[in-house]
Amino acid sequence: xxxxxxxxxxxxxxxxxxxxxxxxxxxxxxxxxxxxxxxxxxxxxxxxxxxxxxxxxxxxxxxxxxxxxxxxxxxxxxxxxxxxxxxxxxxxxxxxxxxxxxxxxxxxxxxxxxxxxxxxxxxxxxxxxxxxxxxxxxxxxxxxxxxxxxxxxxxxxxxxxxxxxxxxx
Length: 169
Fold this sequence. Notes:
The chain is mostly helical. The protein is 68% helix and 0% strand. α3 (32-40) packs antiparallel against α4 (47-59) and α4 runs antiparallel to α8. The longest helix has 25 residues, at 133-157.
């Protein structure tokens, strides 16, 4: 995802007041420490540098920072036109996950087509319910890092589906 839109979005991000940059970043990952750290290293020469800094900050999240970021996440829903049984299955799986681990199930669906999302979410929850809490926190942290990268890329690129781009940059 490169081009003039990304360059212009990155320039807006680099030039934005600190509070605006932090607000954009918090919409990508709910850890204040992560957002402050990424914002503090502006300006970024290109998207890859921004994403590398976001990754580095994500790898350094303390358990409390990770908990803060996970608490800010919300469970994904099924497509509105999915059968009622799919909505019910997803709600039950998410409730079981949240009951076991104390936070919303997070998964980065970038490698998948939208028609595969529900299957990937349900399969991911089934698999990850077998994890012990420490292993699941590590997996959740990695998924959260992927989500943050994806959200940040969309925010900087100014995608219309990204409310972040229109409200914070």
